[in-house]
Amino acid sequence: MEVKARAPGKIILSGEHAVVHGSTAVAASIDLYTYVTLRFPTPSDDDDTLKLQLKDMALEFLWPISRIKDALSGLGCPDSSTPTSCSIEATKTLAALVEEQNIPEAKIGLASGVSAFLWLYTSIQGYKPATVVVTSELPLGSGLGSSAAFCVALSAALLAFSDSVKIDLNHQGWLLFAEDELDLLNKWAFEGEKIIHGRPSGIDNTVSTYGNMIKFRSGSLTRIKSNLPLKMLITNTKVGRNTKALVASVSERTLRHPDAMNFVFSAVDSISEELSSIIQSPVGDDLSVTQIEEKVEELMEMNQGLLQCMGVSHASIETVLRTTLKYKLASKLTGAGGGGCVLTLLPNRTIVDKVTSELESSGFQCFTAGIGGNGVEIYLGGGSS
Ligand SMILES: Nc1ncnc2c1ncn2[C@@H]1O[C@H](COP(=O)(O)OP(=O)(O)OP(=O)(O)O)[C@@H](O)[C@H]1O
Ligand SMILES: C[C@@](O)(CCO)CC(=O)[O-]
Ligand SMILES: [Mg+2]
């Protein structure tokens, strides 16, 4: 029995960090995916282990099922229909199970992802032997929602073979979940994100689950549709960072300067609201494509200024901003900042070659991605597409 799931990464057009503090944000899925394959052994395989293979990193983790059962079965019964938070006690137990695997020091950031895997696996599937294989087209820890895509794809594969979801086993090709199943899947993925991020807003797992473009505030989403084909250049500064630490640093600044930071968050809220209405406005009578693009550019610049205020920009991000400005292009960081990826709006008229080669000569990596496609999908029955 085998199922493959894929979940997209995302860009945040406006509102990262402020969204953790109750402001509106706007995000869209991108056509770069994390893939999770789940395979249960047959009795003749005589395999009583749980294996997690992170193919891109050539890493394999393996636990005897008896070891996992001994460690976790006292902490509650698996129930795929009820997304459950990982308690402090369970967090410690998972950390011990991960530590036994001796993750190389240079890749220790993966430990939280492996803990999230163990939590989602045992909560949804219980104590069954299986092999789970993960690959990703997303750079990890770069602001494109790799942690959420991982949790969403994992939840999809695990739920596909649970009592909580009814899937058509005869379906050929990629298959979408029903709306109520997506709601359950999204809640499970959020529990995984909590293990990786500490205090996520839920925007990343939500946009990876439902796809398209969304406006998100305080846990609820509104689907939106851009009236112009938004083209974004994504520049990866390749400066590593960790979303959990950056989110915590903004919360600490908020504790030190609550009044000032609340004005910042409220300004971001207005920017996101304006951005969402401007991209949905009809092109033609009142506003031309160029006028809409100019407004989006200005809002992106304003959002970037406020992200600097929150303390999450970085010298490498500033280099990208300066370079793109030379070509009269507007940019902002996307995701948690502190390095990672920067978005640059590419208006209709733009020729990208010059700006791209100048950015790449600084050691950055540039690419474009399709924006606003499907959210999570599964593929049944061995092989792949
Ligand atoms: N394919 C994967 N396999 C295993 N772990 C993963 C994978 N993708 C992400 N993770 C986990 O998520 C962590 C990166 O998450 P983090 O939230 O810091 O960055 P991001 O999600 O890429 O960016 P952002 O949250 O700003 O969009 C990794 O260190 C790892 O623990
Ligand atoms: C920085 C943040 O706002 C977005 C990370 O992609 C964190 C979150 O919303 O969970
Ligand atoms: Mg993340």
Automatic annotation (TrEMBL):
InterPro entries: GHMP_kinase_C_dom, GHMP_kinase_C_sf, GHMP_kinase_N_dom, GHMP_knse_ATP-bd_CS, Mev_gal_kin, Ribosomal_Su5_D2-typ_SF, Ribsml_uS5_D2-typ_fold_subgr. It catalyses: (R)-mevalonate + ATP = (R)-5-phosphomevalonate + ADP + H(+). The keyword Transmembrane helix does not apply. Residues 295-361 form the GHMP kinase C-terminal domain. It is found in: Cytoplasm. SUPFAM superfamilies: GHMP Kinase, C-terminal domain, Ribosomal protein S5 domain 2-like. Keywords: ATP-binding, Cytoplasm, Kinase, Lipid biosynthesis, Lipid metabolism, Magnesium, Metal-binding, Nucleotide-binding, Steroid biosynthesis, Steroid metabolism, Sterol biosynthesis, Sterol metabolism, Transferase. Its main location: cytoplasm. Its EC number is 2.7.1.36. Gene3D superfamilies: 3.30.230.10, GHMP kinase, C-terminal domain. GO terms for molecular function: ATP binding; metal ion binding; mevalonate kinase activity. One of its GO terms (biological process) is isopentenyl diphosphate biosynthetic process, mevalonate pathway. GO terms for cellular component: cytosol. It is an enzyme of class 2 (transferase). Pathway: Isoprenoid biosynthesis; isopentenyl diphosphate biosynthesis via mevalonate pathway; isopentenyl diphosphate from (R)-mevalonate: step 1/3. Residues 126-211 form the GHMP kinase N-terminal domain. The keyword Protease does not apply. It comes from the Eukaryota. Belongs to the GHMP kinase family. Mevalonate kinase subfamily. This is Mevalonate kinase. It comes from Ficus carica.
